[in-house]
Amino acid sequence: MKVYFPYEKVRPEQQALVADVMEAVAKKKIFLAHAPTGLGKTVSTLAPALSYALENNKKVFFLTPKISQHEIVLETANLMNEKFDLGVKTVDLVGRKQMCIDPFLSRTGTGFYEMCAKRKKDKACKYYGNTKGYTLKQKVIASRRKREILQEYNKSYLYIKESCVFKELCPYEITIEMIKNAHLVVGDYSHLFHEDIRDNVLGQAKIQLEDIILVIDEAHNFPERLRDMMARSFDVNGLEKAIKESKNVGAFETEFLLKDIEKEITKLGKKLSLSNSSAVLVPEEMDFLKKIARQGLEQIEETALKFMEKNNTENSFLLVLGEFLYELIKEKKHTLHVIERKNALGIGIYPLDPSEIAKEVLEKVHSVVLMSGTLLPLEMYSDVLGISQINNENEKIFAEQGKKDEQSALHNRGFAVSAHELREQQKNMVKHNVNSKILLKEYKSPFPKENRLNLFVEKTTMKYTSRNAEQYNQIAQMVDKIISKVPGNTIVFFPSFETLESISTLLKTRRQILKQEREMAQDDKTKLVHKFKLLGSQFGGVLLAVSGGSFSEGIDFPGDYLSCAIIVGVPFGRMDIYTNALIDFYEKKFHKGWEYAYNGPAITKAMQASGRVIRTETDQGACIFLDTRFSEPRFKVYYPKDFEVKKTIEPEKELEKFFNKK
Question: Span 122-149, mean pLDDT?
Fold first, then answer.
C-alpha cells in the first residue's frame, strides 16, 4: 500500500511509527502508541490511515479532546491533497450547540439539546427548516439552497458556520450531511463514544462502525474524559427551583413528583454527619429514584419546555434534573452513587469503568490508533480501556476454534494427540493472536538529548504530612534560585491552586510573575499566554500554573517562549470518596488500584507539564522535578525508557552549567 506522506523528510523513528500504523490499519489492530512530542504524531498516523481508507472505502475519524487541535489535522489533510491531488474531503465536526446560529437558542444553557429537539418537532426553527425542510416543497427548496455549501470540504467549522449565517442554514445539520461523502472527520471523543451523539452522527450519514478507522489523539486524557462524559449530580437547591418552575406553569403532578424526590434525597442525607460531607450509597438505595426516573422523566421534560416557552427563558432547572435522571437510567454497571453536601445536599453519579463505554466502539471499528506523548505504561491504558479484555475474548474464540480444527484434522488423519500437546498448540495460537490483535509500542524522542536537562531535586517535598511553613519557604527559595539561573521564561507548575497561592506569596524573584486563576475565560487565557511569550524575548518572566490544568498541555512554547519548567510536587488527585472508590475498583479488577487510579494519573500530569519545554529540534530547556518522591522506584514504570535524568540537591549549579555550555 502506498502511503501519501506529504513531507520530503521522514525521520527514522517517525518512519517506524508510520509503518506500525500501516500494519495496525491493514490488519485491523488496536494500536496504542507512546509517541513523544516532535515525532509528528498527526501526520504519521493520518497519512497511512487516510491512504488505506481511500483504497478500501473506509472513513477516518480523528478524535481530539480540544477543538484547538483540529486545525493541525485539517492542515495535514490539505497538504496531502496539495502534494498528491487526492481529493480528500475533510469535515471539521464540533458540537451542535457550538454550531447553533439561532439568536435565541444559541444562548440557551443547560437544556439546549431538549429545546433544540422541541423547536424542530414544532417546526419552529427556520434554520433547520431551510436545511432539511418540514414539507415536501420545503425539502426541494432546501436541497437547492444548500447544494453549494455541501461541497465546502476541508474548511474549519467557523468557515461553515459563517457561510450558513449568510444562507440562514443550520451549520450542524449541514456538517452532518457532509460526513456522508467525507473521507476524514475531525471531531471530539463524544462524537463516537456518547451513545446518543454517535447514533445521530453515524445514523444520518448511514455509516457503520465497522467502516471507521479511528484515531484517538491525546489518549492519556481518554479514560477520564469518558468518565466525565457520563457523570452527573443534582442538589436540593436545584430541586427547589425546579419545583417553583412547575408551579409557574401549573404542572401540579410534576410538582408532587419533585417533592417525592426531595424527600428521598433528604432521607438519604441522614447518612451524613457534621464531620462527614459525603457517603457512598449502595445500589438498592437508588431504587426509588430510578423508579421515578423511569416513570416521570418525560413528564418532567415536558414541564421544563412549557416553562421555558412561557417565560421566554433559555435555562431551566427542570431540564438539569431531567439530564440527571436520564443518565441515572442509562448508567453502567460499575457506577459510584454518592450522597454529598457541597453548597447543598445532593446526589452524584460517577462512572468508575471507562471500558464499559469504550469497548462497544473499540471492538467494532475497523481499526484503532490511540496515541499520546504520555501513554505509559501502555499496558495500564490497555487494561483501563478494556482493550486487554477485547483481546482476551478474541484469544478464547481463537483458541477454541483452533482446538476444534486441530482435533478434526488429527481425527481425519487417524492420529491421537495428548492433552499436553493440545495445550501447547493452543498457547502458540493464542500467542499468535496477541501479536495480531493488539500492538503496544513506545517510541523514542527525536530531539537531541543534550538539548534537555532533567533534574530530580531530592531536597524538598509537597508530601501532605510534610507541608508546613518551613517546607513552603524552602520550596520558594529553591524556585527563586532556579529562576535566577534561567536565561528566559520559566513556568512553575503546582499540584493545586491552594499550594500555588501559598507559595506564590513567598517568592522573591525580581522577574515579572503571571498567574493562572481558578476561573479563567478562554480569552483571558489567550491574553495571559501572549503576555508570557513576550517576556521570553526580554529579561524573562515567570508563569505560575497548575499541573493538569489548561496551561500544562495543549499549548506550545517553542524557542524563546519557554526555557524551564519546574514541577513542584507530585500532582496527586485529591483523596476523596471518588478516588478511594476508583482505587478499590482497580484493585479488585487488576490488583493495581493505587497504580491505575492514583500514581499513574499523577505522573502523567507531571510529564505533560514538563513536555511544554522542548517543542522543536533546536529548542534548549530544563525540566526540574521538585519533590523527593519523583525518584522513588514505584514511579519508574511511568517514565519513558529514554528518559535521562540526574539527581541533585543543588539544581541551580546544574542549570548554570547547562545554559552556559555553549
Answer: 91
Residue 328 CA to residue 348 CA, distance in Å, equals 10
C-alpha cell of 157?
467549522
**pLDDT by residue (tens digit) across 26-85?**
999 999 999 998 888 999 999 999 999 999 999 999 999 988 889 999 999 999 999 999
- In 343-386, which residue ranges form alpha helices assigned H by DSSP? 355-362, 378-384
Q: In 3-state terms, what secondary structure has residue 628?
A: helix
DSSP for 506-534, please give it. T---SS-EEE--SS--HHHHHHHHHHHHH
Kindly list the distances between the CA atom of residue 383 and the CA atoms of 87, 100, 222, in Å, as whole numbers in the listed order: 38, 38, 13
- Between CA 427 and CA 425 the distance in angstroms is 5
Tens digit of pLDDT for each residue in 270-301?
Answer: 999 888 889 999 999 999 999 999 999 999 98
Question: What's residue 278's pLDDT?
Answer: 92
Sign of CA dihedral 514, 519, 524, 529: positive
3-class DSSP state of 30: strand
Q: What is the CA radius of gyration of the chain?
A: 27
Helix, strand, coil percent values for the chain (each to nearest 5): 55, 15, 30
CB-CB neighbours of 625 under 10 Å: 28
As a whole number of angstroms, the distance between CA 120 and CA 128 comes to 7
Cis peptide before 283 (omega within 30 of 0): no
Q: Kindly give the residue spans of alpha helices, DSSP state H, lying in 368-458.
A: 378-384, 387-413, 419-437
Rounded CA-CA distance 434/388 in Å is: 10
Distances (CA, A) of 208 to 205, 245, 392, 491: 9, 42, 24, 45
Structural element, H or E, at residue 449: none
Q: Which three cell numbers stand for residue 647?
A: 539527581
**What span, in angstroms and rounded, lies between the C-alpha atoms of 474 and 627?**
12
Grid cell locating 446: 527525536
Alpha carbon 205 to chain centroid, angstroms: 24
- Beta-carbon contacts of residue 302 (< 8 Å; ≥ 6 apart): none
Beta strands 335-341; 345-351: pairing state:
antiparallel
Q: Where are the beta strands (DSSP E) in 283-356?
A: 335-341, 345-351
Interatomic CA distance for residues 493 and 501, integer angstroms: 12
Dihedral sign for Cα atoms in the order 322, 327, 330, 335? negative
**pTM for the structure as a whole:** 0.89
Q: What is the identity of the amino acid at 535? A: L
Q: How far apart are the first and last CA of the chain?
A: 46
Q: Point out which residues pair with 187 in neighbouring strands.
A: 63
Residue 401 burial class via C-beta count within 10 angstroms: exposed 0-12, middle 13-18, buried 19 and up = exposed
Per the structure block, which three cell numbers stand in for 5? 506522506
Distance (Å, rounded) from C-alpha 653 to C-alpha 566? 15
Count of positions (residues) in the chain: 662
- What is the number of other CB atoms lying within 10 angstroms of the CB of residue 614? 25
pLDDT exceeds cutoff 60 at 344: yes
Q: Is the pLDDT of residue 120 over 90?
A: no
Reading the block at residue 333, the C-alpha cell is: 454497571
Task: Give the per-residue pLDDT at 508.
Answer: 96
Backbone angles phi, psi at 472, to 5 degrees: -65, -40
What single-letter amino acid sits at 355?
S
